[in-house]
Design a protein that fits this description.
The protein is of the alpha/beta class. The strands form 3 sheets. The chain has a 6-stranded mixed β-sheet, with helices on both faces. The chain has a 5-stranded parallel β-sheet with strand order 2-3-4-1-5, with helices on one face. Strands 6-8-7 form a 3-stranded antiparallel β-sheet. Helix 13 runs antiparallel to helix 14.
Length: 386
């Protein structure tokens, strides 16, 4: 697959670059900075052994860098968090050097007690591809099946690559770093929580499914979020006059990863799985749109205890946007119920219903749009498309 231009813009100062495995962090760095960098890959055992045994070796490498090189990259910094002390010292003494510290998890950095360079380095995140980045290469049906992780999209065998993706994390991130005691229970947790993708999270039920205690399941969920593989979506509660749900919803970071972990069988409803995948695809786009745009909005969902629900609430200075996702080409009157309710609660809300049909129209003030077109027009730094 040819190179795809990403929305992430590098800051002028040192920064951490976090993102799940396979989202293209190393590729993005090489495209933006070319050969004018000192690149140290901590996944290479020789580099890892040298720098962890002698952290001062980093100073020697930086001081001996080629002329014109003003950027130093430490790839997968969570493998060697002790190097951050040396990085901190170098940043204080050599202010013209920019450090880029990449990682697929901040968990080990937190556990080591480091302070992420006391705020001297910004934090940026790289997400799976957005539809707008892909342009004509974006195909909704393929995205729903295989997701938008660059590693998977570029693979000759996307299905096989997805099948190996979770195993890679279990071996190289979870087991190798000792993040959990029982790797088998954690593997069952990844599968059990896939049934909650796009749903209100009942962690006690998930714990029973994977045969662990609730406290253990809570710890597993924290690990999953620290590894950037999953995210909780809170309830929107600003100035609410109604009694609302209290539990968050859950989404895997990529709909293809969700599909690979979600078991299927003759008793499963394909429409339910497809609907969860579509909702997850919208969620990952909204996260990327918000993140690349400077995190100027909060993302949440809305659900009353009476059962009226809206999948996504995007709230910021430019207003309140309520977005409902329906995996159907034919919209029924009852599909508008959640959006009608939130319009009564918040008259300022701009309301959207995303569907699988081809028509774009307005129904009683609600903008109805084909989901694929909405995703293809969603661009960071620009308003939500109408």
């Amino acid at each position: 697959m040819e190179t795809v231009s990403r929305f992430l813009i590098p800051p002028d100062q040192s920064f951490f670059l976090f993102g799940p495995r396979g989202t293209g962090k190393s590729t993005w760095i090489r495209e933006h900075f070319g050969e004018k960098i000192l690149y140290l890959d901590l996944l290479r055992m020789d580099v890892f052994r040298t720098l962890t045994a002698n952290p001062e070796r980093l100073r020697e490498l930086v001081e001996g860098r080629n002329p014109g090189v003003d950027t130093v990259v430490l790839d997968e910094i969570q493998k060697a968090p002790t190097l951050l002390d040396e990085v901190h010292s170098l940043m204080e003494k050599q202010k013209k050097i920019r450090f880029i510290l990449t990682g697929s998890s901040a968990r080990k950095l937190k556990r080591a007690g480091v302070d992420l360079l006391a705020g001297r380095a910004l934090i940026r995140n790289l997400h799976p591809f957005m539809a707008y980045e892909l342009g004509k290469k974006f195909v909704l049906e393929k995205a729903l099946q295989y997701g938008l992780v660059p590693l998977v999209m570029n693979a000759p065998d996307p299905e096989g690559t997805l099948a190996a993706y979770a195993a890679l994390y279990l071996k190289e991130e979870v087991q190798a770093e000792g993040l959990v005691r029982n790797i088998g229970s954690f593997a069952r947790f990844l599968e059990a929580i896939s049934f909650s993708n796009g749903s209100i999270l009942n962690l006690s039920h998930v714990a029973r499914e994977c045969q662990v205690g609730q406290k253990t399941a809570e710890g597993y969920l924290d690990v999953l979020e620290d590894l950037l593989l999953g995210h909780r979506l809170p309830v929107f509660q600003k100035r609410s006059k109604r009694s609302l749900a209290s539990h968050p919803k859950f989404y895997y970071f990529d709909t293809g990863v969700f599909r690979s972990l979600r078991p299927t069988g003759p008793l499963d409803d394909p429409g339910t799985i497809e609907g969860a995948a579509l909702e997850g695809l919208v969620f990952q786009h909204l996260r990327a749109w918000n993140g690349y745009g400077g995190d100027k909005h909060t993302l949440s969902y809305w659900r009353t205890r009476a059962g009226n629900e809206v999948d996504f609430i995007v709230y910021g200075k430019d207003g309140l946007h309520a977005i409902e996702v329906k995996n159907s080409k034919r919209i029924r009157p009852e599909d508008f119920s959640g959006l009608i309710s939130i319009g009564e609660e918040y008259p300022i809300a701009k309301r959207y219903l995303l569907h699988r049909g081809a028509d774009r129209y307005v129904h009683e003030g609600i903008r109805c749009m084909p989901c694929g077109k909405f995703l293809a027009e969603l661009k960071p730094g620009k308003p939500i498309p109408e």
